[in-house]
Design brief:
Layout lengths: L9 H8 L3 H12 L3 H15 L2 H4 L6 H23 L1
């Protein structure tokens, strides 16, 4: 069942949003009478739907990754220079 087809209790939504899937499954089973397998499938799907956008689409690299690599490289070079130049 999709989220739009089902009304989830607020406690279930709060548990999913907080990342407490086991608690959410227990609450859903108590409220709906679903079996363990069905409740787990519902919560897993709900967690995907309600995942914050920033976590749903991880950064794909790009300029940020290049800058990080350059900074780490510069830091390693500075340490090398400090240790072996003296």
């Amino acid at each position: 069942m999709e989220e739009k087809d089902r009304h989830y209790p607020a406690a279930v939504l709060e548990a999913v949003d907080a990342g407490r899937k086991i608690d959410a499954i227990k609450l859903l089973r108590e409220e709906s009478g679903l079996g363990l397998k069905e409740a787990k499938q519902e919560i897993d799907q709900l967690a995907i739907i309600r995942r914050p956008q920033s976590r749903a689409m991880p950064e794909q690299g790009g300029a940020g990754a290049i800058v990080t690599i350059l900074l780490v490289g510069a830091g390693l070079f500075a340490v090398y220079w400090f240790v072996f130049a003296n």
